Amino acid sequence: GSCAPLPSLTLLCLPAFCSSLFTNSLPPTLQVPRVHPLVLRAATNEPPAAAATSLPLLLRPEPALAVGASLLLLLVGNRLLTDTLLNSQSRADLIATIAPVLIVLKALGDIDITPREAEPVVLDGVDCAWVEPSLPNATRRELEWAADSLTVNSEACAAIAFWSEGRTLLLRGALASAAADAAPAAALVPGPLLNKCMERSSGAPDYLPALQLLPGRVEFDYFPPTTQGVLMVPLAGTRRGALVLACDRQRGFNSDDIAWARAVTARLGELDM
């Protein structure tokens, strides 16, 4: 008899079915594994900002925070505009709140929050560059080198004073008018904070990053009254002394500045004074 024509879908699938049947009927040693085509991608060096923008919307901190806050506002608005509150609706609202809360928490954990750098303040004082004249020439050169290196390596450093064994040995930068008019050797008078710092023989510094908020700022009256921060680095060992640095902005000294000030102070402690 006549054979009915096969549907087109059957014609399309029949070769693949026969091939699969033939391949599966072979012994395992004769079966040819299927080879998938390789997909080659060019290597790209995307910056972190470009990589962040390629993330899905809810994985970026700022859009995720906006989406989560919007969902929470919609839930609160729906709750307030509903006339009759049923127990089932309360349970649904509670369950629906979980997702936007998690989105907001995830966004807050991923967002990069950096404190804004404080603006420098003009220190109203008298510029001074003085070294104790009775010191040996080599010691004077070392003190001048220390002052130059501290002011060059730290942009916020506006004034420097070095006190050792009952007298001031170095003054550099902006000083208060009263201190500049007085005898330089007696300009720095250690107060309670500086004396407490010098009691430590380890050389660990004391840092006051926001001097204007502390009542103890009156102790540093040899610096201009608008001084924003003070770093005190004592001499290590048995010698009594300290290097005092003033900055023209809050939180002006970073960890590198403090480490360098400690290294300079350790070198000054080895000088013949």
UniProtKB/TrEMBL annotation:
<protein>
    <recommendedName>
        <fullName>GAF domain-containing protein</fullName>
    </recommendedName>
</protein>
<dbReference type="InterPro" id="IPR021325">
    <property type="entry name" value="CCB2/CCB4"/>
</dbReference>
<dbReference type="Pfam" id="PF11152">
    <property type="entry name" value="CCB2_CCB4"/>
</dbReference>
<dbReference type="GO" id="GO:0009507">
    <property type="term" value="C:chloroplast"/>
</dbReference>
<dbReference type="InterPro" id="IPR044705">
    <property type="entry name" value="CCB4"/>
</dbReference>
<feature type="signal peptide">
    <location>
        <begin position="1"/>
        <end position="20"/>
    </location>
</feature>
<keyword id="KW-0732">Signal</keyword>
<dbReference type="GO" id="GO:0010190">
    <property type="term" value="P:cytochrome b6f complex assembly"/>
</dbReference>
